[in-house]
Specification:
single chain, 967 residues, alpha/beta, Rossmann fold, D-Maltodextrin-Binding Protein, domain 2, 38 strands, elongated, synapse, transmitter-gated monoatomic ion channel activity involved in regulation of postsynaptic membrane potential
Length: 967
């Protein structure tokens, strides 16, 4: 069989319901490019021979399979959909899983996978998964075994494809089970060529031996027992796993301190015959026992059906057994679907081997190939029903399965509630033969010894303490680190005159340089050389699919890692691997810092609004009138006075006195008159309470207002910016911020993008019409520096949208005329990039998490952003405290001066008025005295009038004198 051949099988699942025979076509895809020829051959035989097992497998002997196949490529899945099938069966790998996943989810075509799930267990998934894995994942079993052995340090050898997903799933399960359990992982990537396994293992064992020798020399105490080396081997496929075993058997320096654990289910006891007399410890996991009588009987039947391919002594590969059970799952799922939705649910779906979906021929995952012009894009109408049925499938060995109980997680589609057997090979103590131990494990139950659940005892960790977080020992001991010059992440050091020229890594300083130093201290053997990306480019995808900048350096292996403010984006994640974010940021708004608030001479009135002042003045006149009225009508406010031998009734609360009394109370002053009546006292008490609150509030606000210099920005949020047109705003043209607005589905951000685009078009039209020849008016800029400079020179008429880290840094640098307003528009992360499959990624992840937990990353941020700031940050409420100067309170001095002048003018008017009145009185008396005496009656009348006038004058003068007698 050609290794590069990909095989496509068409299986017709035939079930008989009543007297009616129904055929349902399936598709099974076997890609022999990713598995060895023997395994592919066995899978093909297993699929074909299912026609023999049909009578035994399905209930009442109602089913059998008709099988035929043809050669094709895995991408022909879409072509086969034109004829149609009920569901797919395949053995996916990390190269083609994405294709199957997209087709299954997009077309709603269920896929039964006989390989372990490639999906992320902790990722958010649909309620109805479309991919179901018959082969279980071993992460939970692996974590239980590590805890059972009380291991704290492990070496993880992998293909570089599944390491991130496997470790993430393992640590997630470990955290849920034992939050305080610490596990340190040392990563190695196995060579892609199996012929290099032996050289790889020899070099690996030499390094371990050298490290043990160095620790023995450095230690003051002699180390008798070598440190255990626990190695987890996670390779894809049985072919590579068996090749690794053969290389391990031939490798040198393998001693009893090594313990190799093979985490997949591809290894059988027959593969371990060469280790009967070995000193090495080996553990394998088995999903089923190939020496079981039932399995041997099945193998004999398999041999009888397909004699040409295998002898009766050949073992069935594990993948072939999973393929066998995958077809059982398919048949059971279709039966469940017909039982739930009616026996005739699929009657009209297939006619003469042609699928009719919603009454029309075929399925088209490439809509442009559909010749039916009136049909819109449609998914498989029965796909969700079949997927729901697969979720309900429960098969056991009584149903004919070869790999035990089969049941699927209803959310992820992974196999669940399964059990496995652990086989351990240990060196013999008193004999040359190795010791073989077996025990059982069940999911969510743990290890079972003697039919009982094994309870783990806490053991003392005897492993040696190592430097740093994880003892990473990559193949390449010195790494090339690419970066870009961006303040304050990476900057060139300033060299003072007379100092020697700086070389190597000493030329640079900044946040990222300090971060690299911390990583080197916490990852053993991490040494690096820093260089700058050509053109200071981060990395963007070109028209021909290539990448420039730092991403390009990683892809062509000029650099090993990129340490810079490199944003983790979906497009970049497809090209390189990113570590955990070492800093989070987001798009923010930068504006020119507003000028300090100018104070006018009447600033003392601003603590209270104009409405409050008007209502307070109205209240003053209203209360004065109320006191005057209640005093006038109340009999208890009347006073009886005895003056000059007669009694008079008076009331002190005249309208003039009422106004004076109310004003004195408001000014916190006293008067000589007080209300006697209860009604008057009630009105006065309410007014006093009112003045207490008003005066206290005014005093408090006045103190804060006059001593705090506030700088009120014209906008305070992104909503304010989008809902006005006086302040223009823009981004760096072609940058990630521009891509964020362009691709956003948020209405507010789409509105802002449309505004920026339309404004730019208008400005370009004006330039073409020679109305404006300068491009400085454009809102899109070519770099951060141009955008920041535009903010500073636009006199508050331009806002720049950029990442928060740069915004905060520039706001703290001279000339201190920019500021950030509002919250971040989104959340971004800066990560360390490396080529996909680089084993250093996991070490970097754990180191970054460690530094974050210890607060080291926060210290670095404070050091480069705030501790070295050149601007006064002021108080937290946006103002700066200052002394009280004359410009803030000049108004009260003007009022005092105006009051004094008005008082003097009033006194002068009163004096002149009184003087004029007295002169008129004298003139009148003189004229009267100069007249001749009149007859007795007339003279008597004039004397009476004169006496009455004198009495009135005397009474008016006595108002201000002390009262004589009161009753």
């Amino acid at each position: 069989m050609n290794r590069k051949q990909c095989l496509l099988f068409i299986l017709l699942l035939t079930t008989r319901i009543g007297e009616t025979s129904k055929k349902f076509p399936l598709r099974a895809f076997v890609a022999s490019t990713d598995i060895d020829n023997d395994t592919a051959h066995a899978i093909i035989e297993m699929l074909i021979s299912m026609s023999f097992w049909g009578q035994e497998t399905f209930r009442n002997g109602n089913g059998h399979f008709d099988v035929e196949f043809e050669s094709n490529h895995v991408l022909s899945v879409c072509d086969e959909m034109k004829l149609g099938y009920m569901l797919m069966l395949a053995g996916t790998n990390f190269k083609n899983y994405g294709i199957y996943e997209d087709i299954a989810n997009h077309m709603k075509m269920p896929l039964i996978d006989w390989e372990p799930s490639k999906s992320d267990y902790i990722a958010n998934r649909s309620n109805i998964p479309m991919i179901f894995s018959v082969a279980p994942s071993a992460e939970q079993l692996l974590v239980d075994y590590i805890q059972y052995k009380c291991w704290r340090d492990i070496v993880y050898i992998h293909d570089g494809k599944n390491a991130d997903r496997t470790l993430r799933t393992m640590f997630s399960y470990l955290h849920r089970k034992s939050p305080k359990y610490q596990l340190f992982v040392d990563n190695y990537v196995a060579p892609p060529d199996e012929e290099m396994f032996k050289e790889f293992l020899n070099e690996f064992h030499r390094r371990i031996s050298t490290q043990h020798t160095l620790r023995s020399n450095d230690s003051s105490e002699e180390i008798d027992e070598p440190t255990p080396v626990n190695v987890i081997v996670d390779l894809e496929g049985s072919y590579r796993t068996r090749a690794f075993l053969r290389a391990l058997e031939e490798s040198v320096l393998v001693k009893k301190e090594y313990h190799y654990v093979f985490s997949n289910f591809e290894v059988d006891e027959s593969d371990l015959t060469g280790f009967h007399f070995s000193l090495i410890n080996i553990t394998i996991f088995r999903i089923f026992d190939k020496n079981d009588k039932k399995f041997l009987r099945t193998r004999a039947e398999f041999h009888d059906v397909y004699r040409g391919g295998f002898s009766n002594t050949d073992s069935i590969p594990t993948a072939a057994a999973f393929a066998h059970d995958a077809i059982l799952v398919a048949g059971k799922a279709l039966q469940i679907a017909m039982d739930e939705h009616g026996k005739g649910i699929f009657d009209k779906s297939f006619v003469r081997h042609q699928l009719f979906n919603r009454g029309k021929k075929g399925l088209y995952c490439r809509p442009h190939e559909d010749q039916t012009e009136t049909r819109q894009f449609e998914s498989f109408e029965h796909g969700l029903k079949i997927a729901e049925a697969i979720k309900k499938v429960v098969l056991t060995e009584q149903d004919g399965t070869l790999t035990g109980r089969i049941q699927f997680d209803k959310v992820t589609g992974r196999r669940t509630n399964f059990s496995a057997e652990i086989v351990e090979i240990k060196p013999g103590v008193n004999s040359l033969n190795s010791i073989w131990e077996r025990f059982q494990w069940a999911q969510d139950e743990g290890f079972l010894l003697g039919g009982e659940k094994y309870v783990q005892e806490r053991k003392k960790d005897s492993s040696q303490t190592r430097k740093g977080i994880l003892p990473s020992k990559p193949w390449k001991l010195r790494f090339n680190v690419v970066t870009v010059l961006v303040k304050p992440f990476v900057m060139l050091k300033r060299r003072n005159p007379g100092e020697p020229e700086l070389k190597g890594n000493d030329r640079f300083e900044g946040y990222c340089i300090d971060l690299l130093n911390l990583l080197a201290k916490n990852i053993t053997g991490f040494e690096y050389d820093v260089f700058i990306s050509d053109g200071n480019k981060y990395g963007s995808r070109q028209a021909d699919g290539s990448w420039d900048g730092m991403i390009g350096y990683l892809l062509n292996e000029t650099a090993d890692v990129a340490v810079a403010p490199l944003t983790i984006t979906q497009e970049r994640e497809r090209a390189v691997d990113f570590s955990k974010p070492f800093m989070t940021t987001g798009i923010s708004i930068m504006i020119k810092k507003p000028e300090k608030q100018e104070f006018n001479i009447f600033s003392f009135m601003e603590p209270l609004g104009m409405t409050i002042w008007i209502f307070t003045l109205s209240s003053y006149f209203g209360v004065s009138l109320t006191i005057f009225l209640v005093s006038w009508f109340s009999p208890y406010e009347k006073r009886i006075e005895f003056k000059r031998g007669e009694f008079t009734v008076t009331n002190e609360f005249t309208l003039y006195n009422s106004l004076w009394f109310t004003l004195a109370a408001f000014m916190q002053q006293g008067t000589d008159i007080l209300p006697r009546a209860v009604s008057g006292r009630i009105a006065s008490s309410c007014w006093w309470f009112f003045t207490l609150i008003i005066v206290s509030s005014y005093t408090a606000n006045l103190a804060a207002f006059l001593t705090l210099e506030r700088m009120t920005p014209p906008i305070e949020s992104v909503e304010d910016l989008a809902n006005q047109n006086k302040i223009l705003y823009g981004v760096v043209e072609g940058g990630s911020t521009a891509a964020f607005f362009e691709d956003s589905i948020v209405p507010l951000y789409k509105k802002m993008w449309n505004f920026m685009v339309s404004t730019t078009q208008k400005q370009m039209e004006l330039e073409k019409q020679s109305i404006s020849n300068s491009t400085s008016n454009r809102i899109f800029v070519s770099s951060y520096a141009d955008g920041i400079e535009k903010v500073r020179t636009s006199k508050g008429k331009y806002a720049f949208l950029l990442e928060e880290t740069t915004n905060n840094y520039e706001s703290g640098r001279r000339p201190c005329d920019t500021m950030k307003v509002g919250q971040n528009l989104n959340t971004l992360g800066y990560g360390i990039a490396s080529k996909i499959g680089n084993p250093l990624r996991v070490s970097l992840n754990l180191a970054i998490l460690y530094l974050s937990e210890k607060g080291e990353l926060k210290k670095l941020e404070n050091k480069w952003w705030y501790d070295r700031g050149q601007c006064d940050t002021g108080t937290s409420d946006g103002g700066t405290s200052s002394s009280l100067n004359l410009s803030k309170v000049a108004g009260i001095f003007y009022i005092l001066l105006a009051g004094m002048v008005l008082s003097m003018c009033t006194a002068l008017v009163e004096f002149l008025f009184r003087k004029n009145k007295e002169n008129r009185e004298k003139e009148r008396n003189r004229m009267r005295n100069s007249r001749p005496q009149k007859p007795g009656i007339i003279a008597s009348c004039e004397r009476a009038k004169q006496k009455q006038h004198q009495n009135r004058r005397t009474k008016s003068e006595e108002v201000s004198t002390p009262r004589s007698t009161l009753f």
